[in-house]
TrEMBL record:
Residues 65-97 are annotated as: Disordered. Coiled coil: none annotated. It comes from Mumia zhuanghuii. Residues 88-323 form the Tyr recombinase domain. It comes from the Bacteria. This is Tyrosine-type recombinase/integrase.
């Protein structure tokens, strides 16, 4: 948006200039996104005394939008979709929407090539413990209670924080925020994963290793999943390695050429977050969790969310309806 206006004085900003800025996009949706960002800039600038009160109100809610001024990029292909059964929510996540055991094993092997101290453990933990990315990659030994604690006797991990995607570089503490929905939770650790991996033993070994690394000075915060330099990972850095590992592990993806810049781009049909869907299926299919139990274990907003996404109401209703239809006579 600011391209061409880098040297503009704050008091020179007027509505015509803002219209040019926010029109520097290829679609109507991006113009709206630009408009929201500029509204935020004006509010901030007014509070910081860069913009006048009149300037802060130049973009009012419900106002008109200019047309996009740049060429639109080629529409990105959608991830693989499927027809849903009658009675299933539009949000329903089927078993095939989550990586299989073989896919998890393959990705764990390939990610281990980039992060040999914890690559396999990170993949297995995501699939079997249901961590979101930001929750998992800030974990430290004090979060892990394999011998239980006063809150729960069984082996578990406390999810008290997640990585703040908007934080600047700094200490681990400076980059933390509360988990999604401001809800902390306790995740029970299974001893053997659904792939046969000895998850509890590997997690205990990693806790000990992180504490040794802290003593040696190579991992100051004793992070369970640190960067190569012993600091908290950035999502962009991790994603670059993750995508290379996904390709090597033959996870499905589609490439296309963007007409606007001529670059080849990629959409991955299974993502890191899809392993959280696998976790839900494990809890339901293998451990027979109720909707309430899954909601608490995975930190979902409410029972309706998990019922819509993961429970097979379509199959259950179809079977019960079929039985009732055969009662006549």
């Amino acid at each position: 948006m600011l391209k061409g206006f880098e040297g503009t004085e704050a008091l020179e900003v007027d509505r015509a200039m803002l219209d040019v800025m926010r029109s520097q996009a290829g679609t109507d949706n991006m113009v709206k996104a630009n408009t929201s960002a500029l509204k935020g800039m004006l509010r901030w600038g007014h509070q910081a005394r860069y913009f006048t009160p009149v300037q802060s109100e130049l973009l009012v809610r419900g106002g008109s939008y200019p047309a996009p001024a740049t060429a639109a990029s080629t529409r990105r292909p959608r991830r693989n979709t499927r027809a849903r059964n009658a009675g299933e929510s539009a949000e329903y996540i089927s078993p095939e929407d989550a990586p299989s055991g073989a896919k998890v094993i393959d990705l764990a092997r390939e990610l281990d090539a980039f992060y040999p101290t914890w690559g396999q453990l990170a993949v297995e933990s995501a699939a079997n413990l249901g961590f979101r990315w930001g929750e998992e990659f800030q974990l430290v030994p004090s979060d892990v209670h394999l011998r239980g604690c006063r809150e729960q006797e069984e082996a578990h991990v406390h999810v008290d924080w997640q990585v703040n995607s908007g934080a600047k570089a700094g200490s681990r503490r400076s980059r933390l925020t509360l988990p999604k929905g401001n809800k902390r939770r306790i995740v029970t650790v299974t001893d053997i994963s659904f792939t046969g991996f000895e998850l509890e033993r590997a997690l205990a070994a990693r806790v000990d290793a992180a504490l040794r690394e802290q003593e040696e000075g190579s991992n100051p915060d004793a992070l369970l999943f640190p960067s190569a330099t012993g600091k908290m990972l950035w999502h962009t850095t991790f994603t670059r390695h993750l995508h290379a590992a996904m390709r090597a592990a033959d996870w499905p993806y589609t490439e296309w050429v963007d007409d606007r810049d001529g670059k080849t781009k990629t959409v991955y049909h299974l993502t890191w977050h899809s392993m959280r869907h696998r976790y839900a299926r494990i809890c339901i299919d293998d451990f027979d969790y109720t909707a309430g139990e899954l909601m608490v274990a995975g930190g979902w907003e409410n029972e309706l969310t998990v019922k819509n996404r993961y429970y097979r109401s379509s199959d259950e209703n179809r079977r019960s309806a079929a039985a009732k239809s055969r009662r006549r006579g």
